[in-house]
Amino acid sequence: MSDTELVLRSTRVITPEGTRPATVTVADGRITAVLPYEVAVPSNARLEDFGDHVLLPGLVDTHVHVNDPGRTEWEGFWTATRAAAAGGITTLVDMPLNSLPPTTTVDNLRTKQAVAADKAHIDVGFWGGALPDNIKDLRPLHESGVFGFKAFLSPSGVDEFPHLDQDRLAQSLAEIASFGGLLIVHAEDPHHLEAAPQHGGPKYADFLASRPRDAEDTAIAQLIGQAKRLDARVHVLHLSSSDALPLIAEAKSEGVRITVETCPHYLTLTAEEVPDGASEFKCCPPIREAANQDLLWQALADGTIDCVVTDHSPSTADLKTDDFATAWGGISGLQLSLAAVWTEARRRGHGLEDVVRWMSSRTAELVGLDTRKGAIEAGRDADFAVLAPDETFTVDPAALQHRNRVTAYAGKTLYGVVKSTWLRGERIVADGEFTEPKGQLLTRDN
Ligand SMILES: [Zn+2]
């Protein structure tokens, strides 16, 4: 083992065995040991003592739309990864759409990797996309290291990323299962969306009615059926409808290989509070009622929902018009996700250990990075966030690192101030000061 270069100490280190006073030793960018708090520090090692601030594993956000290259006026690798670092995230996995090109061929993946390489302040991996016409590209993309494949079951919002009907879904899923891959799915059924009342305009209630729960429930039921038939591994993206929870719980109990994520906005914002015309709150599926939110929290607690990811999906401010039907659908949350989720988790009696499980350990597992990321234990990368969990701040859009400072959280007071973020043993941001980009491009472990 290499000599210890860095020693991190806190009275509250979140480890897989719980939170305790500990000393964490680091060499060559990896954690070498988690030791008792009082252990002697080697004389040649640098000591960083965080006192009572919490040392937690850097978050792993597996659902981010960076949009680079092609729609860089919406977001880009430089701004997205700085925002993520400021929010305690040390790994993100980029969604295959909204960039031009989308990540649907190996050539396109290479283009994306080349663009990201010297802009990444945190580690970055890539999802591939499953389109109606790219089944032949799925295996080569898998072999090139994408973490899995995203598909839409209803229109995606951009023309270059068409959705799969049930036949195409079956074909793509069979192909992905043939090489042991993962399909991640935007699950809203297009027929239920078409049948729903489409009034448009500024009223949030009208928008909510246009994206009903049964669109999600039906698509998820169909996905479960396909996964079961093909013994394929599937993941439900951004679950909003609590009505789908019993279906998911039953599928899991039957051994269907399905995992589920939800997002900070479904867990912390409610339909009742969205002002009419406020399309910074628009996303698909939509933010639903408070009673729905309570059930999502219960499902996180009992494991029906596995993890929490941002679905950070920004656009320029001019596309966030006051007509919910035509405004861009997507919520920016990268920098605020930890604080937003922690604030509500705390209020509901959950611990920071739970938040770490949902936002770091389980997401690392989802993409097979759990030998490197997602926990403070020997052998993993020395990726950390240092958090003052009882300090509050009021969200000021001007303080965001996102390219477009549009946020549904403006003016909210949140618990949890990230004091510094560390990537492979280097402090990459502290007090708003960033180092040069030190992120690496990640590929799926073979
Ligand atoms: Zn998304």
From TrEMBL:
Pathway named in the protein's UniProt entry: Nitrogen metabolism; (S)-allantoin degradation; allantoate from (S)-allantoin: step 1/1
Keyword Zinc: yes
Cofactor (UniProt): Zn(2+)
One Pfam family it belongs to: Amidohydro_1
EC number: 3.5.2.5
Amidohydrolase-related domain segment(s): 54-426
SUPFAM superfamilies: Composite domain of metallo-dependent hydrolases (SSF51338), Metallo-dependent hydrolases (SSF51556)
Highest taxon in the source lineage: Bacteria
Keywords attached to this entry: Hydrolase, Metal-binding, Zinc
Enzyme kind, highest EC tier: hydrolase
Record's signal peptide: none
Family: Belongs to the metallo-dependent hydrolases superfamily. Allantoinase family.
Subunit organization: Homotetramer.
Protein name: allantoinase
Species of the source: Streptomyces longisporus
High-level lineage: Bacteria, Bacillati, Actinomycetota, Actinomycetes, Kitasatosporales
